[in-house]
């Protein structure tokens, strides 16, 4: 890869191999319809035929693989890994073999006044209080720093990928090396001996894999005709949804058998999918790409333009608050199943149940998503849908406070799923409505996405701080409820928007 001002000279007698053209001429023949790119070094448009289908197939598979990593690692592996490391620090010597589930049930019985702890038990309960606070804070910090680094990496990678010149095209090097390096780091996570090492390796692994995500998504705009981008995006959305569920459910069901060795499986999946995408959905060479001089100052200043618009700024604040509140409520789900609900679950039971909390709300979320999107278009209104969704989500946060049980968490997931289904399509449409410059929609919608990332980064930090300060999880739900209500309030100042 290089970043120079002019394309490399080419020779008519020894041109660079063109994978797409060669494949089309040798195998696909007249079945492929391909439009040559308007600019040298960019991708051809795959209108239809075997090459187009092959691209869509591997695009979907790689999207599933990457989403499976986050479903497995963020939802299951990382919380369990942090818990195991923290347990080894807090419960040592004679207490090393303590059963966390039994100790938590004892704590609940003491809190209910149905039993009295002995001296030894009281000491163990003190250790349990410190352990609960420590694991929540550690998981929050590790999760948040990974999101923050991704926020910094993705915009820069996007610019560099636009300017990359290689035999394999502009995006392929980033997709390939991001997948492979990320996979290698996931393997190294398995052997992290301390929380500090785990945090560093996970942070870099997340950044590496996300360095592949942006260029992968951009291949849709590069290679698909306008009338098929919706189909390709739908396949990507399916991949994100299905991959997250697949990773969470697989890791949850296999953790009792494989433990932390599940890292190997998810790493192999994303490495395999990354390599296969580059090999079987090959792009044309970008060695003759014309690369203009880069002005980094203008690039970074450009991200502030949209925030100078009053309407855009309020919608952005609302998204941060809702993402913030939603992430506060979900960041410590595994630990809530072990320490908050009554009766408390064991680590294995909680690990198996955690993915189901996500799964139970999915069907109703999809239904709400389509209904809200169409109804919003039909009525020509956005604000009321975002406000209703925010209020409904806030109300869902009260359910686990009233009913700290498995049933309460499932009811919250269902009601919250309805709210999220209403919010997602209308919020995105609202952002498009308040764009200050439609010609810069890509840049400004990227800023909108940073709002989600910022909320997701702040959520775990607040959740961990609440548990560390209060020693329990009720405050987590209260904080989440307040933040989401504030998200609804932030929509009211909009002007000229229905």
TrEMBL record:
<dbReference type="Pfam" id="PF13347">
    <property type="entry name" value="MFS_2"/>
</dbReference>
<feature type="transmembrane region" description="Helical">
    <location>
        <begin position="139"/>
        <end position="160"/>
    </location>
</feature>
<feature type="transmembrane region" description="Helical">
    <location>
        <begin position="172"/>
        <end position="189"/>
    </location>
</feature>
<feature type="transmembrane region" description="Helical">
    <location>
        <begin position="353"/>
        <end position="372"/>
    </location>
</feature>
<feature type="transmembrane region" description="Helical">
    <location>
        <begin position="232"/>
        <end position="256"/>
    </location>
</feature>
<dbReference type="InterPro" id="IPR036259">
    <property type="entry name" value="MFS_trans_sf"/>
</dbReference>
<dbReference type="InterPro" id="IPR020846">
    <property type="entry name" value="MFS_dom"/>
</dbReference>
<feature type="transmembrane region" description="Helical">
    <location>
        <begin position="447"/>
        <end position="468"/>
    </location>
</feature>
<feature type="domain" description="Major facilitator superfamily (MFS) profile">
    <location>
        <begin position="81"/>
        <end position="498"/>
    </location>
</feature>
<feature type="transmembrane region" description="Helical">
    <location>
        <begin position="56"/>
        <end position="78"/>
    </location>
</feature>
<feature type="transmembrane region" description="Helical">
    <location>
        <begin position="195"/>
        <end position="220"/>
    </location>
</feature>
<protein>
    <recommendedName>
        <fullName>Major facilitator superfamily (MFS) profile domain-containing protein</fullName>
    </recommendedName>
</protein>
<feature type="transmembrane region" description="Helical">
    <location>
        <begin position="262"/>
        <end position="281"/>
    </location>
</feature>
<feature type="transmembrane region" description="Helical">
    <location>
        <begin position="409"/>
        <end position="426"/>
    </location>
</feature>
<keyword id="KW-0812">Transmembrane</keyword>
<feature type="transmembrane region" description="Helical">
    <location>
        <begin position="474"/>
        <end position="494"/>
    </location>
</feature>
<feature type="transmembrane region" description="Helical">
    <location>
        <begin position="316"/>
        <end position="341"/>
    </location>
</feature>
<dbReference type="GO" id="GO:0005886">
    <property type="term" value="C:plasma membrane"/>
</dbReference>
<keyword id="KW-0472">Membrane</keyword>
<feature type="region of interest" description="Disordered">
    <location>
        <begin position="1"/>
        <end position="36"/>
    </location>
</feature>
<keyword id="KW-1133">Transmembrane helix</keyword>
<feature type="transmembrane region" description="Helical">
    <location>
        <begin position="384"/>
        <end position="403"/>
    </location>
</feature>
<dbReference type="GO" id="GO:0022857">
    <property type="term" value="F:transmembrane transporter activity"/>
</dbReference>
């Amino acid at each position: 890869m290089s970043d120079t001002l002019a394309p490399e000279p080419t020779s008519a007698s020894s041109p660079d191999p063109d994978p797409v053209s060669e494949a089309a001429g040798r195998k696909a023949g007249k079945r492929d319809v391909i439009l040559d790119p308007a600019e040298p070094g960019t991708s051809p448009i795959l209108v239809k035929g075997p090459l187009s289908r092959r691209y869509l197939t591997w695009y979907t598979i790689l999207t599933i693989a990457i989403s499976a990593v986050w479903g497995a690692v963020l939802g299951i592996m990382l919380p369990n890994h942090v818990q195991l490391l923290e347990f080894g620090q807090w419960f040592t010597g004679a207490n090393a073999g303590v059963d966390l589930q039994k100790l938590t049930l004892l704590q609940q019985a003491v809190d209910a006044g149905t039993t009295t702890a002995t001296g030894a038990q009281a000491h163990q309960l003190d250790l349990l209080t410190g352990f609960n606070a420590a694991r929540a804070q550690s998981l929050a910090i590790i999760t948040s720093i990974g999101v923050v680094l991704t926020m910094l990496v993705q915009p820069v990678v996007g610019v560099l990928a636009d300017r990359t010149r290689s035999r394999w095209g502009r995006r392929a090097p980033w997709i390939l090396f991001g997948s492979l390096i990320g996979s290698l780091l996931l393997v190294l996570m398995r052997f992290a001996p301390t929380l500090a090492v785990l945090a560093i390796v996970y942070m870099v692994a997340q950044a590496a894999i996300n360095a592949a995500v942006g260029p992968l998504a951009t291949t849709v705009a590069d290679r698909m005709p306008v009338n098929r981008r919706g189909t390709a995006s739908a396949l990507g959305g399916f991949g994100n949804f299905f991959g997250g569920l697949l990773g969470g459910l697989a890791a949850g069901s296999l953790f009792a058998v494989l433990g932390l060795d599940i890292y190997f499986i998810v790493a192999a999946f994303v490495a395999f999918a990354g390599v296969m995408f580059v090999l079987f959905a090959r792009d044309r060479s970008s060695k003759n790409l014309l690369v203009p001089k880069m002005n980094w100052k203008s690039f970074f200043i450009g991200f502030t333009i949209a925030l100078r618009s009053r309407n855009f700024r309020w919608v952005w604040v609302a998204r941060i608050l809702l993402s913030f509140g939603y992430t506060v409520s979900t960041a410590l789900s595994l630990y809530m199943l072990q320490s908050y609900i009554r009766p408390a679950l064991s680590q294995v039971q909680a690990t198996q149940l955690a993915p189901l909390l996500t799964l139970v709300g999915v069907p109703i979320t999809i239904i709400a998503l389509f209904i809200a999107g169409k109804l919003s278009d039909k009525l020509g209104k956005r604000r009321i849908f975002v406000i209703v969704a925010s209020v409904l989500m806030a109300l869902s946060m009260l359910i686990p406070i009233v009913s700290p049980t498995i049933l309460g968490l499932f009811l919250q997931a269902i009601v919250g799923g309805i709210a999220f289904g209403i919010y997602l399509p209308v919020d995105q449409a609202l952002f498009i409505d308040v764009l200050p410059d439609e010609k810069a929609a890509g840049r400004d919608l990227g800023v909108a996405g940073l709002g989600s990332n910022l909320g997701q980064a702040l959520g775990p930090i607040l959740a961990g701080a609440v548990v560390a300060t209060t020693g329990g999880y009720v405050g987590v739900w209260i904080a989440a409820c307040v933040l989401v209500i504030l998200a609804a309030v932030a929509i009211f100042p909009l002007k000229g928007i229905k």
